[in-house]
Amino acid sequence: MTTSPDGAAELPGGKRLSGTHGSLARGVSAPVAGTVFALALTGGMRLGPGAGREVLFGRNRPAVHVCLGEDDPLVSRHQGTLTHRGGQWWISNHGRLPIRLARGRLLFTGEEPLPLDTGYTPLFVRGSRHREHLLEVYVTDADGTAPTPRPADITLPPRTWILTAQERLVLVVLGRRYLLHEVRPQPLTWQDTAAHLARLQPGASWGPKKVEHVVSAVRTRLSRDGVPFLTREEIGEPVGNTLNDHLLRELLLSTTLVPPDLALLDVQPDDDTWS
Predict the structure, then answer these.
(1) How far apart are CA 78 and CA 254, in angstroms?
(2) pLDDT tens readout for residues 240-250
């Protein structure tokens, strides 16, 4: 296998991307639809579609086309491969560590390759000392042009969900740990949520069943409106906190709930009654 001037393996038909190439998230352009771009910190590769064409990436610069995590021994010498077949690009893992894709999907070595959508896909490999090695991938679509900059356009607001005052209060208590940016937050239990609500509203007759009813109604409403992973059928057993975790994350990502909502609670954040 011959190498290019930067020491990476040559790829017939491919074009090198320098380490100073801008992020692929800004878009790319190519004359042929289905062209793949792969970029790591030190450079990358562009390659047009064609049955059996491959882009190898990993730590061993002379043996791969895109060098990823060159100074990190936790990254495999040949971590993964982008392969074109059936008119589509696929990602496969050959390394010891999983490759993380969008929405936390992990691809392990030995698993079936996953298809790559057109557009931008970030791939992550966890390294040593809490490092995350990023491989940016971009597959051009039928039009093959980069997205047009739109600096003067009005910023589109996120889709927020309508909550009643009661629902918002219950969800702020249930998801208080998320709003406080704890590292690995979990929803409070029905019982703990009811106990905190009873202290906030002593005359409201809060109990675990009432809390569950309020939260379940919100989950059902959002699920019917297209939000995934809010029903037992989608998750499967055991459910545990998963449904409420997904609900709270959707409410935060959509900015339906935001940290200033903690002002609804009259117990201070450092009060030991919240432990």
Answers:
(1) 38
(2) 899 999 999 99
Statement: the pTM of the whole predicted model exceeds 0.70: no
Is the preceding omega at residue 202 within 30 degrees of 0, hence cis? no
The answer to whether domain 15-139 has CATH 3.40.50.2300 is no
Q: Where are the domains of the chain?
A: 15-139, 165-274
The C-alpha atoms of residue 58 and residue 116 are separated, in whole angstroms, by: 18
Largest CA distance in the chain: 78
CA dist 57 and 45 (Å) reads 10
134 Cβ neighbours under 8 A, 6+ residues apart: 40, 41, 122, 123, 124
Return all residues near 67 (Cβ < 8 A) that are at least 6 apart.
7, 8, 40, 42, 43, 57, 58, 59, 60, 61
Phi-psi region of 177 (alpha: psi -120 to 50; beta: other; left: phi over 0): alpha
Token pair for 161: 């969900």
Mean pLDDT computed over every residue of the chain: 89
